[in-house]
Design brief:
β3, α9 (about 265-280) and β4 form a beta-alpha-beta unit. About 70% of the residues lie in helices and about 10% in strands. It has ten helices and four strands; from the N terminus they run βααααααααββαβα. It folds into two domains: about 10-215, Up-down Bundle (Alpha-lytic protease prodomain-like), CATH 1.20.1510.10; about 225-300, Cation efflux protein, cytoplasmic domain (Alpha-Beta Plaits), CATH 3.30.70. The longest helix is centred in the middle third of the chain and has 30 residues, at about 90-115. α2 (about 20-45) runs antiparallel to α5 and α6 (about 155-180) packs antiparallel against α7 (about 185-215). It has about 300 residues and is α+β, with helices and mostly antiparallel strands. Strands 1-4-3-2 form a four-stranded mixed sheet. This is Cation transporter.
């Protein structure tokens, strides 16, 4: 029998992220400071739109924090009982982030209903100035992470968080200007609802992706039936079983499979061909393949799971 695995994109992604640790740390500090500013002014001015944008900026803080945590977790060796390392910490944090976001969006929408009937007099100038400062902070972080987003999936996630929040800050800024110039106090709950509805679909996708990883479903972009057929079509392979494809954490797909071969097969050649197929066609660089003769396959078939 033969088995083997490859290491490629996972370690490269960790190294690419590692080059941007300082930028991510600075981005985290900037976003956290402006989250506190927006939250404080939002409560002071009783601006639901600003509080909504502060909640959205909190997602940026969490997103960048998760990116940093994933880098440091990836650097820790897989020792003792942690045979897969701590990569799943990023996924658990993402799920917690999604739960928090659902709560924030739900609170904003609930509060907005009452404000449509009796809109408070929100001072437009503090809201406008704070939103402008938040927008400036987002643009700085946006520029800092732009290059890293092209090299690292981990950094790209934080980059997209900031990009989305930049749009929200623009909406709050426009709302503050309209309130200041025309005294349209209904603009505040309207912008709050718009930001809340903008956050919800992203939150749903984040939670869905995290749950898919935690229950070890196959990645969406991989057709498992097609993958099985292509492995079975390799020279000397007669059957494929115990095929599993899952995601360890974002951007790190893993596979394992048993390849049954003819008695005269060169197991080394079959192993290399299988690994090449998974790496080149499906982007799976970490794969464990067991190449076995027919008598070993019969024992596998007797297993109930």
């Amino acid at each position: 029998m033969g088995h083997g695995h490859g290491h490629g994109s996972a370690s490269e992604a960790a190294h690419a992220s590692g080059r941007y640790v300082r930028r991510l740390a600075v981005a985290f500090g900037i976003l956290f400071a402006f989250f506190l500013l927006e939250a404080a002014v939002g409560f002071y001015a009783d601006s639901l739109a600003l509080l909504s944008d502060a909640g959205h900026m909190l997602t940026d803080v969490l997103g960048v924090g998760m990116a940093l945590a994933a880098i440091f977790a990836a650097r820790r060796p897989a020792v003792g009982r942690r045979t897969f390392g701590l990569y799943r910490m990023e996924v658990l944090a993402a799920l917690a982030n999604a739960v928090l976001l659902f709560g924030v969006a739900g609170y904003i929408l609930y509060e907005a209903i009452g404000r449509f009937q009796d809109p408070p007099q929100v001072p437009g100038v503090p809201v406008m100035l704070t939103a402008a400062a938040g927008l400036a902070a987002n643009l700085v972080v946006f520029a800092m992470l732009r290059r890293g987003a092209e090299e690292s999936l981990n950094v790209r996630g934080a980059y997209l968080e900031v990009l989305a929040d930049t749009i929200g800050s623009v909406g709050v800024l426009i709302g503050g200007i309209l309130t200041w110039v025309f005294g349209w106090y209904l603009v505040d709950p309207v912008v709050a609802v718009a930001v809340g509805l903008f956050v919800l679909p992203r939150t749903y996708r984040l939670a869905r992706q995290a749950l898919r990883i935690l229950v070890q479903q196959a990645p969406e972009q991989i057709n498992v039936g097609e993958l099985r057929s292509e492995l079975a079509a390799l020279p000397a392979v007669t059957e494929v079983h115990d095929l599993h494809v899952w995601t360890l954490t974002s951007g790190m797909e893993v596979a394992s499979a048993h390849l049954t071969t003819r008695g005269d097969a060169d197991h080394g050649s079959v192993l290399v061909a299988g690994q090449r197929l998974l790496a080149e066609r499906y982007g799976i660089d970490h794969a464990t393949l067991q190449v076995e003769p027919d008598e070993c396959a019969r024992r596998c078939q007797a297993l109930t799971w």
